[in-house]
Write a structure and sequence with these properties.
By secondary structure, this protein is mainly β. The chain is 5% helix and 64% strand. The strands form five sheets. The chain has a 22-stranded antiparallel barrel. Strand 33 and strand 34 form a beta hairpin. The longest helix has 10 residues.
Amino acid sequence: MTNRVLPIVCVILLFFPNQSWAQSESDSILLDSIVHDLPEVLVKGERPIAIVHGSAITYDLLRLIDKKGITNIYDAIKELPGVTETDGNFMLANRKVTVSLNGQIMSLSSEQVSQLLKSLPASRIEKADVMYSAPAKAQVRGALINIRLRKETTNGAPLEGEGVVSYNQLHNAKFGERASMLYHKGKFSLDAMYLHNHGREYQKTDQETHHKLNDGNVYDINNEENRSTKMFGHNYRLGTEYDFADNHIISFSYQGSYDNKDISQLYTGSIYGKTFTNHRTWLHNARLDYQAPFGLKAGIETTFYHDPENQSLSSTTPNGNLKFTVDNDQRVNTWRYYLSQEHQLSKGWNLSYGAWYKKSVNHSLQAYQDQSTANYLRQTEDVDNVYAGFGKNWNNKIILDASLAAEYYHSPQWHKWNLYPTFNFTFVANPSNVWVLSLTSDRKYPEYWAMNNFTVYSNGGYDEITGNPYLQPAKEYSGNLVWILKNKYQFAAFFNHTDDYFVQTPYMRPDRLVKTYKVLNLNYQQQAGLQAVLPHKFGSWLDSRLTLTGVWMDEKCDDYYDIPFNRSIIMGMAQMSNVITISAKHGLAMTIDGMIRSKAHQTIYDLPGSGNLDLGLRWQFWKKQAILHVFCNDIFETSVINPRIDYKGQWFRMDFSCYREFGVSLQVKLGGYKEKESKNIDTSRFRK
C-alpha cells in the first residue's frame, strides 16, 4: 500500500477520472453479441476505418498501429481515437474505461488488467470495439473498449508464433522476453503466452513542507528520498475454444502472474533513515464460458490474489526516532457467475435479459514484530444483478438501445438496491455522418485498502497512510454526444457529475508533526468538456492525427478537515501523432508523437502543465517476419507533474525525478507455414 501512495499523487494528470477504486466492478465485459447483433453503418475514411454498430464504434486497430512498432495490446489501445491515458488508466470522454478481451469478463483490478494487456502481443488484435456507455446486457456500466483477438492464424496455417525481446533504459535498465503462439485447426483453437520481465527502477523525490502546529511552532521540513527497486516477474496465459456442435462454443482461459519486488528507500535532510520493503505477489484467474446458437450464454470465473509485504523502517524525524518491522498481508478470493439470453425479433427489434452474481472475500493482516497482537480484517462483498433491455432499428437510420439493471450490493458497510438505466440513441444522416447519444448512471465503491483500520508509514514515518471506514459510495451520472463526420473526423461532447466523489488527499495535521494521507468523500465533482479528433494524410509519406480536448471541472467539499474548498478550473490538452514513411519498399517508418497539458487542480492540489515529445524508428525486414523498433521517449524530460499546495495554511511541494527513456525491441514472427499439397503427375503420355 505504501508503494502506491506517492506515485498516485504525482501522476495525477490534467484529466481527472471519476476514480472508481471499486472492488465490485469487473474490468471487462461481454461485448461480442452487443456488436454483432446490431446493424452496421460503414464509415470509410483515411484513418481510422470505423463501423458503427448502433452505439458501438469498431476500429481497425491493426491499421492504426501498422507503422508504429507497437508490440503489446496496452500500447495499441492508446492509439484509439479519443482515448487518453491517466495514471495507468484509459480515459474516454474524461471517464475511466473498462477493457475486455473477446468479451470475456475478468474480475481483476485495473492494475492487473493493465499488466495482462502489456504482456499480450498486438499482432493478435482483430478489431477494437468502443462504447461510450455500455447497455445492461454488457454486465458492466460506463465506457468500455473490447479487444477482439484473432482465433485463426493470419494465412490459414495451423500454427504461428511470435518472440519479442526488449530493452528499456531510464535511470536503470529493464528487460523483457516474451513468447506467444496460436494454434487453430478445424473447430479447435489454442493460444498461449509467457512473459519474463526483470530489471531495476530508480526514482528521486524532493519534498518541502511548511508545517504549522497548534502550539505556534512552525517546522520547515526539507528532505530527499531515493527509491531503488529490483524486480522480476512472470506472466502467463492459456486460452482454448472448441466449437463442439453447430455454433455451440465452449471456451476456457487461465492467466496468472508472479511478481517479486525488493524496494530500498533512503531519506536525507530533515528526515534521515531508510526503509526496506519486499513484495511477493501471486495472481490466478480462470474462467469457463458456454455459448449456444439461440443466444444463450453462461459462465463461471474465479480469481485468487495474494500480496504479502514485509517492511522494515528506521528513521529520525523532527518528531523523534521511529523503528519497526511490520508484516502486511492481503488475500482476495472472488467468484462470479452469469447467465444471459438475447433474442433477435422481427421488424428490427431485439430483446435481452439475464443475471449475474459476484462474491468477494478479502483477508487483510497487519502485524508488528515487536508486538504480541496483530490486526486482522475479513471483508465480504456480494453483488446480485438482474437486467433487461431492448433495441429497435428503423431502416438503419435511427437505432435505439435502452436497458435497466437492478443491483443489490451487500457488504458490512452497505446493503442497498440500486437501479441503473442506460440509453443509447444513434442517428445515421448518411454513412459518413453519424451521431451517437449516450446517457448512463453508475455507483463506485472504495477499494478494501481504503476502508481498513490499518496505518502504513512512508517518507521515513512523516507520512501516515490511513484507512477511512466511513467512506460512502460515489454516485455518477454521465452524458455523451459523439459525431463522426466526413468519414474521418470525430467530435465528442460530455458531461459527468459525481456525488460523494472520493479521492486520496494529504493533510498536514495541526496537532502533531504528521502528514496524513486518507481517502475522503467530496460533496461532488463535475466536468464538462469537448474533444476533437482530426486525422489527415499528406500523400503517402505522412499520416497525422491531432486530438484537442478542453474540460471545465468543479470540485466542492464542505467537510475537508477544517479547510473546506470549492474550486473550479478550465483545462486543455493537445496531442499530435505522426507517422512518416521513409521507405515503403524497405519497411522504414518514423514516428513523432507529442502532448502538452495546461495547469490543473485536484482537491487542494495545484498541478502545473506538462508535456512530452517521443521519437521512434521502425524497420520491418526478413520478408516482413521481423520488426526492429528503436525509440526515445520524453526527449526534453518534461512529462512529470510536480504537485503544489498553498491553501489556507497548507504549504507543500513535491519534485519528482524525470528521465529520458531509450529503448529497443526486436519482434520475430515464427511458423505460419502451410503444408504443401502434393499434385498428381500426369503420366498418361508415357504409357504404351
